[in-house]
Design a protein that fits this description.
Largest sheet of chain A: 7 strands, mixed
Oligomer: heterodimer
Distance between the termini of chain B: 40 Å
Shape of chain A: globular
Shape of chain B: globular
Strand content of chain A: over 45%
Structural class of chain A: mainly beta
Largest interface: A-B, 24 and 20 residues
Number of strands of chain B: 11
Number of strands of chain A: 11
Strand content of chain B: over 45%
């Protein structure tokens, strides 16, 4: 199975900061990568698919990049609503796997 | 509006069985592949099963293969997960999630149903 590793596990930031989360795949997945946001007690929400495509309705401050084995999620200016846990997911193979999550906390 | 509503969770003893349901509305259910994803308390996300729109193709990870069975009834707009031989490590919130129309990311999720395996 393809392993997904996110860094950091926890990130402390302030409103207005530029935030970057990294996701690495154990083998090449082309651009078959999605990013999700999850708030406590809520279901995950799709933010980005195909590594860099913004899901409809998601604010443009979210962006994704990368291909192969290294990917990033960037929040250009962190807003109060963005404090949450973020997961990457590969869908290159028919064993879907997620990263362990990155919790974005208030500094 | 796309809606996915899970039900059927609860407390079950180790070795027991449970059947989860997911009622879909707001889209043409029969045109989309579907998934179950779980999240143990305080842990990350784990994909549990996948079924194509016509039920012709089904996948499971090794952790549940042979114990869990995914199925669907397109006439009832419903997705199911039959869970047998349950273990303590199956304790989690179980989400149903729709696969994208072209690519196999998960574009809509239900609110989840909690399964607790304990004696």
């Amino acid at each position: 199975d393809i392993q997904m590793t996110q860094s950091p596990s926890t990130l402390s930031a302030s409103v207005g900061d530029r935030v970057t989360i990294t996701c690495r795949a154990s083998q090449s997945i082309s651009t078959w990568l999605a990013w999700y946001q999850q708030k406590p007690g809520r279901a995950p929400k799709l933010l980005i698919y195909k590594a860099s495509s913004l899901q409809s309705g998601v604010p443009s401050r979210f962006s994704g990049s990368g291909s192969g084995t290294e990917f990033t999620l960037t929040i250009s200016s962190l807003q109060p609503d963005d404090f949450a846990t973020y997961y990457c997911q590969q869908y290159n193979s028919y064993v879907w796997t997620f990263g362990q999550g990155t919790k974005v906390e208030i500094k | 509006e796309v809606q996915l509503v899970e039900s059927g969770g609860g407390l079950v003893q180790p070795g027991g069985s449970l059947r989860l349901s997911c009622a879909a509305s707001g889209f043409t259910f029969s045109s989309y592949s579907m998934n179950w994803v779980r999240q143990a308390p305080g842990k990350g996300l784990e994909w549990v099963s996948y079924i194509t729109s016509g039920s012709s193709t089904i996948y499971y990870p090794d952790s549940v293969k042979g114990r869990f069975t995914i199925s669907r009834d397109n006439a009832k707009n419903s997705l199911y997960l039959q869970m047998n031989s349950l273990r303590a490590e199956d304790t989690a919130v179980y989400y149903c999630a729709r696969a994208g129309s072209v690519y196999q990311y998960f574009d809509y999720w239900g609110q989840g149903t909690l399964v607790t395996v304990s004696s």
